[in-house]
Structures are given as structure tokens and as C-alpha cells.
What we know:
By secondary structure, this protein is mostly beta strands. It is built from no helices and six strands. Strand 1 (11-14) and strand 2 form a beta hairpin. Zinc ion (ZN) binds next to loops.
Amino acid sequence: MNELMNNGSLFQLNCPHCGEFIFFNPPETVSEATMVDSNIGRVKIHNLYSNRGTNRCYEAIDAEMICNSCHYTFKTTARRNFDI
Ligand SMILES: [Zn+2]
């Protein structure tokens, strides 16, 4: 149950505890930081990985956050795909 919707350039993930669908828009060109998102609160992000195909780009980033829905603290990898 980890199907990713193709939703523009937002990073997407699911809470591993309650399954809440979470998305966020990270600051540009940040590879390691703590950011505060108005919807989901504080997120620690590390290790941006990217992979470029012929007309698609794939990125993944490690994120540590507290789920808004169940308040579980977790680390996970968020992903996004977009056209280039
Ligand atoms: Zn949750």
C-alpha cells in the first residue's frame, strides 16, 4: 500500500504508523536542513538523491518528522517525480 501518486513536484510519503498521506514542498536545493512546513510542522531532511532519465527526473529524500494525524515520530524516504 505504498502507491505514489504523480503529483507535480511535491515530495510524498505515507506515515508508517497510521498510513496518513503526507506531502511537502522542500526549499530549493537543500540537501540537509530542518524545515518548517505550514501543514506538517518541523521536518528534518537529509540526503537528497536524484536520478535523471531522458524526460523524467526522480528524486528521493530522507525525512524525519512527526505525523500530524497520529503524532508518531518516524524516519522515512519521500519521493517525487517530475518532467524535465
Ligand atoms: Zn500517522
